[in-house]
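Lecture notes, part 5. Sequence design as translation. It can be helpful to think of inverse folding as translation between two languages: the language of shapes and the language of residues. The source text, in structure tokens, appears below.
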């Protein structure tokens, strides 16, 4: 009964959690926001928000890069930290300047906030073992246990 309450029968580990986070967030971002920008770029460019004053087309192009291309990189785990950083920048701009830090009401930004939280998590943690990054030798985020070293214990007064 105790193992049921603690769910100890389920597999656990950082690498599996990072894989699930990458795939779920990347898929959601691509299907909901990336495809929309790919298929409707010309229509969206006419009225896309320009919070950084670089022009609506450039703002939309950066958002498309993040929502379409970087989300796919997250899914496969290629350049994960860079992709997560670009997504974090995009969602920070969206949450602060477009949604004006609103979590509810008209034009809420809670989805941007959640994407930001996931992107920052992946930026800090890396892709994990189940990624192309790991296969290419970029072992950041594979969460291996630190190696134990045999240190000689010194007694007080001994050299």
């Amino acid at each position: 009964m105790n193992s049921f309450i603690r769910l100890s029968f389920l597999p656990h580990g950082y690498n599996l959690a990072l894989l699930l986070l990458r795939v779920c967030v990347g898929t959601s971002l691509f299907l909901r926001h990336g495809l929309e920008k790919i298929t409707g770029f010309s229509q969206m460019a006419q009225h896309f928000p320009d919070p950084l004053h670089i022009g609506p087309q450039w703002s939309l192009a950066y958002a498309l890069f993040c929502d379409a291309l970087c989300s796919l990189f997250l899914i496969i785990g290629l350049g994960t930290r860079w992709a997560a950083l670009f997504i974090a920048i995009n969602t920070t701009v969206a949450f602060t300047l477009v949604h004006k830090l609103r979590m509810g009401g008209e034009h809420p930004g809670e989805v941007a906030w959640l994407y930001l939280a996931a992107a920052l998590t992946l930026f800090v943690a890396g892709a994990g073992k189940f990624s192309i990054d790991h296969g290419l030798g970029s072992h950041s985020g594979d969460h291996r246990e630190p190696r134990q070293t045999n240190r000689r214990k010194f007694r007080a007064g001994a050299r």
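The translated text above is only one of many valid answers, since several sequences can fold into similar shapes. The chain has one domain: 12-135.
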